[in-house]
Write a structure and sequence with these properties.
Layout (H helix, E strand, L loop, with lengths): L11 H6 L32 H21 L8 E7 L4 E6 L5 H8 L5 E5 L4 H17 L4 E6 L5 E8 L12 H16 L2 E9 L13 E3 L2 E5 L4 E4 L3 E4 L2 E9 L11 E3 L7 E6 L1 H6 L8 E5 L5 E6 L6 E7 L10 E3 L7 E12 L2 H4 L4 E7 L19 E2 L6 E5 L5 E10 L4 E7 L2 E9 L1 E6 H7 L3 E3 L3
Parallel strand pairs: 2-3, 5-6, 7-15, 16-22
Antiparallel strand pairs: 1-2, 4-5, 8-9, 10-11, 10-26, 11-14, 12-13, 13-14, 15-16, 17-18, 17-21, 18-19, 19-25, 20-24, 21-22, 22-25, 23-24
Helix pairs in contact: 4-5
């Protein structure tokens, strides 16, 4: 089966043959007497350092006054907030409109400890303005918006940022000009003064789950934002005859065997990075059919020369690719996005699969890949329980070997699970409550095949 993620029930026959875990062993219980627990009571205030204790003691009467005043504030839309003026040791109540008689009486009888400060706008008016700002700034591509309201309810201060390349097109104006136009429009409609401190593109933190240009191999990608359809980008590539053409090697089934499917970075606000391509040549045409495709990166985006590994923010350099394909019985390593990257991956034999319900109408050619002793499922480590080599969501993930120069060389990409090799289920990286299936034997596609069949397509390397 392909390793793109799709929620499916476990086959009963697999569950019967391969138990998913050792039977639970009841833990020994030791009764604990509550009376044996020592509890020490302390005076909380006296335990504070002297300076902190003094500040708490000084403000305590005003905090008590605030609780007393709360009963007189029935109209919360007129109440804009309470403020402690430490310098004058007074409690300020910011209020819009006529002050209730009971509140005014307490202020006059408080010997200056309680002051009513006029607010220019009501809480409802401020909420309305903030709501309009957020909605309209989102429409022009702002992805992070912070609106600060001053205590006098006279003005709003806005800070915004956007993802690189995500500000809507169609105008020659800069992002700052567009933001200013929105702020002025809302200010004119609400009568509230609105200013901005910052308009900038976000500095996007990059790792295998949150990648950005230049894209590395092994990054998680998402094929459909409306479903849990995740895969892994295999290898960054380029066109030797076109310096502006950049790609990521990919699995054809991740794009439902169709060219032109949009591919996204999953946790980067669902940012589109390109479209599937070359499936027509690699999967549909010719005497052999391969689960191979590329993501043609959008204009201005490039592929890097490195491969993501673990921890998720670390990477290592790419040296090239294995020109003879996957060498049988040599040891390879993998670097997918769902399972922990590991070695102990062994190409065993060429395998052709005809399964129209999964792979379409044509027989598809793969390399069968296993762990050292997949039939016995004995490759058990903390990072690879029950011998799992890959899980759903790892389709397209890189398979590589280390060269004499210490760099990673592309061998293949992960394509699907070999029948009857289910080893476990585990929580998906994007949502641990979603369970994905993991396998000890799989089907791989060969990088050299893509390079040989698409003239001018080359692996990026340092």
């Amino acid at each position: 089966m392909p390793l793109r993620f799709r929620v499916t029930p476990l086959l009963v026959v697999l569950s019967a043959i391969l138990p998913l875990g050792a039977p639970a062993v009841a833990a020994e219980t030791v009764p604990i007497s509550v009376d044996s627990v020592s509890r020490v009571a302390v005076d909380g205030l006296s335990s504070l350092p002297q300076a902190e204790r003094q500040r708490q003691q000084e403000q305590a009467p005003l905090m008590e006054l605030a609780n007393d005043v709360a009963a007189d504030i029935a109209d919360r839309d007129q109440f804009l907030g309470a403020e402690l003026d430490r310098m004058n040791m007074t409690l300020k109540i910011h209020w819009h409109g006529p002050v209730p008689a009971a509140l005014a009486k307490k202020a006059s009888g408080s010997v200056g400890r309680l002051r009513i400060v006029p607010a220019k706008h009501s809480a409802a008016e401020m909420r309305n303005a903030i709501s309009r700002l957020v909605d309209e700034l989102r429409l022009i591509g702002m992805t992070r918006i912070r609106v600060e309201q001053n205590l006098e309810a006279s003005s709003l201060d806005v800070q915004v940022s956007h993802l690189p390349g995500q500000v809507s097109s169609g105008s020659a104006r800069s992002a700052s000009d567009r933001v200013s136009a929105v702020l002025q429009s809302v200010a004119d409609r609400t009568g509230i003064t609105i200013s901005t401190q910052q308009v900038a593109a976000d500095v996007v933190p990059t790792n295998r789950y949150y990648d950005a240009s230049p894209f590395y191999g092994g990054a998680s990608v998402r094929n459909d934002l409306s479903s849990n359809n995740y895969c892994t980008a295999g290898w960054p590539m380029h066109a030797t005859g076109d310096p502006n053409a950049h790609y990521l090697l990919y699995a054809a089934h991740c794009a439902a065997f169709q060219d032109g499917k949009t591919v996204y970075v999953p946790t980067n606000q669902g940012t589109a990075i390109g479209r599937s391509d070359f499936i027509q040549y690699l999967f549909w045409n010719g005497p052999y059919h391969y689960d191979l495709a590329v993501v043609r990166l959008s204009a201005g985006l490039t592929g890097g020369t490195r491969l993501w590994t673990t921890p998720a923010s670390t990477s290592f350099p790419i040296g090239g690719y294995g020109q003879l394909g996957l060498i049988y019985n040599a040891e390879y390593c993998n670097s997918p996005s769902q399972i922990t990257p590991t070695c102990g991956v062994y190409p065993r034999t060429q395998t052709t699969v005809y399964d129209p319900g999964v792979w379409g109408p044509n027989p598809v050619t793969f390399i069968k890949v296993t762990g050292p002793n997949a039939s016995a499922l004995s490759t058990i480590t903390p990072s690879r329980p029950l011998g799992s080599l890959w899980c759903q969501g790892d389709s397209g993930g890189p398979i590589h070997y280390w060269g004499v120069d210490g760099r990673a060389y592309a061998g293949g990409i992960m394509s699907g699970a070999y029948a009857n090799s289910l080893t476990e289920t585990r929580g998906a990286w994007w949502n641990p409550s979603v369970k994905v299936q993991c396998f000890g034997t799989g089907l791989a596609s060969v990088v050299a095949t893509a390079v040989q069949l698409i003239n001018g397509l080359a692996i990026n390397h340092t």
